[in-house]
């Protein structure tokens, strides 16, 4: 299983690049493109031949000059045998419920949102939501 291969060390190694290179740019794109008052979401991936780390991101204007970000991360095993056997992961494995069958990885989500919170100067610690996401509120700085 990929989670066993990645282990805590693997998540530590990949969490910061995922936050910096994939999640943060996706958040900035969401808040630039969409009007205030509505929640918008996207799913992004980061990985290689053996795995993909996925993140579901929601961004919503929280207060003047603040954006609330909800994040859930998970890992999809791209198992080499399945890939070489011309049977890559099904679409359902790449999405969280209700669209798919993936299950969020709370530890990975905490690591990614922790890096994101530090990079974006979060106003408070991450809080859980009812739908297996962690949220932070950050000051709006569009650069």
Question: How do the strands and helices of this protein lay out in sequence?
Answer:
Elements: H1 2-33, E1 39-47, E2 51-63, E3 66-77, H2 80-84, H3 106-119, E4 127-128, E5 134-139
Antiparallel strand pairs: 1-2, 2-3, 3-5, 4-5
* First-to-last CA distance: 40 Å
How many structural units, i.e. domains?
1
Number of helical segments with 4 or more residues:
3
Mean pLDDT: 81
Q: Record the strand order, biggest sheet.
A: 1-2-3-5-4
Share of residues in strands = 25-35%
Backbone CA Rg = 15 Å
**Beta strands, count:** 5
Q: Give the SSE string.
A: HEEEHHEE
Characterise the protein shown here.
By secondary structure, the protein is α+β, with helices and mostly antiparallel strands. The protein has one domain. The protein is built from 3 helices and 5 strands. The chain has helices spanning 2-33, 80-84, 106-119, and strands at residues 39-47, 51-63, 66-77, 127-128, 134-139. Strands 1-2-3-5-4 form a 5-stranded antiparallel beta sheet. A hairpin with a 3-residue loop joins strand 1 (39-47) and strand 2. Helix 1 (2-33) crosses helix 3 (106-119). The longest helix has 32 residues, at 2-33. The model is unreliable at 1-9 (pLDDT under 50).
């Amino acid at each position: 299983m990929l989670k066993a291969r990645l282990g805590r060390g693997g998540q530590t190694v990949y969490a910061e690049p995922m936050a910096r290179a994939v999640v943060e740019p996706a958040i900035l794109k969401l808040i630039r493109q969409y009007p205030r008052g509505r929640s918008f979401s996207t799913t992004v991936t980061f990985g290689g031949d053996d795995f993909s780390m996925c993140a579901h991101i929601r961004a919503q204007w929280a207060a003047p000059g603040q954006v609330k970000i909800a994040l859930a991360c998970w890992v999809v095993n791209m198992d080499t045998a399945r890939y070489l056997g011309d049977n890559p992961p099904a679409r359902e494995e790449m999405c969280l419920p209700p669209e798919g069958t993936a299950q969020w990885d709370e530890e990975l989500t905490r690591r990614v949102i922790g890096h994101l919170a530090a990079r974006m100067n979060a106003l408070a610690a991450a809080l859980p939501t009812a739908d297996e996401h962690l949220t932070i509120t950050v000051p709006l700085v569009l650069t």
